Structure formats: structure tokens, C-alpha cells
Amino acid sequence: MPGGRYVAAVSDATFRLGPGECLALVGESGCGKSVLASALLGLLPGNAETAGSARLPDGLDLLTADERTLARTVRGRRIGLVPQSPAAHLTPVRTVRAHLEETVRALVRTRPGPETPAGGRGARRTRLRDAAEAAAGRAAFPATHLDRYPHELSGGLAQRAATALALVGDAPLLLADEPTTGLDRELVDRTVDELRAHTRAAGRALLMITHDLAAAHRIADTVAVMYAGRIVETTPAGTFFGADGPRHPYARGLLDALPERAFTPIPGSPPELGALPPGCAFAPRCDRADERCAALPALTEGVACHHA
Questions:
Q1: How far apart, in whole angstroms, are the C-alpha atoms of residue 296 and residue 305?
Q2: What are residue 225's DSSP bridge partners?
Q3: Averaged pLDDT of the chain
Q4: pLDDT for 89-134, tens place per residue?
Q5: pTM exceeds 0.85 for this model
Q6: pLDDT 10s digits, 45-60
Q7: Helix or strand run (H / E) with residue 226
Q8: Within a 10 A sphere around the Cβ of 97, how many other Cβ atoms?
Q9: Phi-psi group of 277: left, alpha or beta (phi > 0 → left; psi -120 to 50 → alpha; rest → beta)
Q10: Could you give the dihedral angle defined by the CA atoms of residues 271, 273, 279 and 285, in that order, rounded to the nearest 10 degrees?
Q11: pLDDT at 239 over 80
């Protein structure tokens, strides 16, 4: 890259997600969680390089699919995205209803039925409106607010609007990128409960990217912990939040930093992805580091740590 250099933003990220399951991908800001999400949707910058595979059940590899395939058959239809900071992703001069109807038109492609004569725009308009209102209802977005503009919505309502847009295409996989950022605790709980309900009711898979461990505890079946671009532990949520807890020192440190636990922050800061230390990237912050940590630990039995 002229005038710069490439860095490995995500490495060795391996996980499997089945229908009706929720995987919470957790870690500090800047660890690569959102980059991974962008890679799955083909939304990385044009100069980014990818390797490996990310396969849907029918075998389609998201990392090698062309833009036409991603745009026409994946985004919205097979993977629904609930973006980070949803209000920033809503067009300020369009109402929530207009957003939903446009998405319905693009994904569902409403056409006149056999009962509708040529030029039956009224019937088409009714079906479009009904489909938009149904999507809003699935996300618990109040019908009384459909004709409001994004700036007229609270953080919780903007979140529900974004969730409704993600549900329009009935995608079997929902990808929620920090869906609770900026919400108070009550709204966080309500948001994750609604996302979980959508997953279970329709047999959808849910990949939730978050730094909020309380939200992950509430929603996840499995927790994957990412540090410096690598997944360092993957474990059932019951084990992660249970008496034994996670095995990786970083994952244990995340839990210990919670107010309801030891409230002890992890010392130091995450490394820059372009200047990772040799071996284990967490070693400079780890109180268990020794000479073995000079070698990069492999992910073995769900954890990448020489001491696990």
C-alpha cells in the first residue's frame, strides 16, 4: 500500500453458529470485532485483503462472493444488520415509515397480485404499507411513531427502527454490531430481550458484537472473546459466567472489571494492531506471563493460552 503498510486486523477467527443460537463476540474497543462484521458483509475498504472462508449453510463463501451476489442475495435477505449507532444510519430527511417501505420494496419486491388490475397502485401501496407496519411490529416499534423523523426518536426507538429494518427480509442470520451503545440499562435489557426473542421465535442465528458483558450474559448461548484481532477463547455462556469462569487471563480480567465483581481494571492498554508484541499479545498485561508466552499460543480446546 503506497505510503503505508498492511496490518492484520483479524486473525484466526473461527466459530460456528447454528439456527436459533446466539454468539456474543466480546472484547475491548479496537480489538477487531466490527472489522470481522464488515468482512462477513463484504463492506471492508477496497484495499483490504481477506483469507480463509465464511460459509453459509448452502456453501456460499462470503469472503469470495462478488459484490453483485452480496448486494442481491446476501445483505438484507440472508444477513440482516443492526448497525452500531442506528440513528447515524437513518436518513434524517425520511420518516421511519419511508425507510421501512423502501426496504420492503427492495427486498420483498411487492408486485400486484392476480386480483389487482394493471395500474392497481392502490392495492400495491396497501401491501407495501402493511408489510412495513408488520416489520415495525416485530421490532416492537410503535405504529404511532412511524411518521416521525430520526431526530424525533429516542435512542431506544432509533434502535427498534434499525432492528425493524434488519427484520424486513426475514434473514436467517442477524448481525448486531454494538446494538446497546448509548442506551440506559433498562433499554439495554429490553433491546437484548427483543433480539433474543426474534432469534428463538424464527430460528434465526444471532451474532452480537458487544463490549457489554451484562448484555452478553443476558442473551448469549456462546461467548467468544477477542483480543488484538484474535479470538482467544470460545466457551458456553453458562461456563463463562458461571462459578468456574473463563480460562483465558484476559477473559477473566474482563469479568473482574465489572462493578458487581472485583471491579479491578486490567492494567495497561491493548496494543496497536500494527505493533503487536511477539508471541501472546496479552503477555505485557498478564500477571501470569512467563517465557512460554514468547511463542504465539494456538487455540486449543477453545482457548489460546499456554497457562490454560
A1: 9
A2: 26, 233
A3: 91
A4: 899 999 999 999 999 999 876 444 444 444 567 888 898 899 999 9
A5: yes
A6: 999 999 999 999 999 9
A7: strand 222-227
A8: 18
A9: beta
A10: 10
A11: yes
Q: Which three cell numbers stand for residue 208?
A: 452480537
Cell digits of residue 266: 486490567
How many residues comprise the chain?
308
From residue 257, alpha-carbon distances to 23, 28, 178, 213 in Å are 21, 12, 19, 10
Q: Quick check: helix, strand or coil at residue 230?
A: strand
Say if residue 190's pLDDT is above 70.
yes
Which among 126, 99, 129 has a CA at the least distance from the CA of 112? 126
- Residue 54's closest CA among 112, 109, 15? 15
Q: Strand 22-26 vs strand 205-210: parallel, antiparallel, or unpaired?
A: parallel
How many other C-beta atoms lie within 10 A of the C-beta of residue 101? 22
Instruction: Assign residue 30 a region (left: φ > 0; alpha: ψ between -120 and 50; beta: otherwise).
Output: left
Take residue 151 and report the three cell numbers written for it: 431526530
User: Residue type at 135?
Assistant: A
SS3 labels along the chain: CCCCCCCCCCECCCCCCCCCCEEEEECCCCCCHHHHHHHHCCCCCCCCCCCCCCECCCCCECCCCCHHHHHHHHECCCEEEECCCHHHHCCCCCCHHHHHHHHHHHHCCCCCCCCCCCCCHHHHHHHHHHHHHHHHHHCCCCHHHCCCCHHHCCHHHHHHHHHHHHHCCCCCEEEEECCCCCCCHHHHHHHHHHHHHHHHHHCCEEEEEECCHHHHHHHCCEEEEEECCEEEEEEEHHHHCCCCCCCCHHHHHHHHCCCCCCCCCCCCCCCCHHHCCCCCCCHHHCCCCCHHHHCCCCCECCECCCCC
Which SS3 state, helix, strand or coil, does residue 74 take?
helix
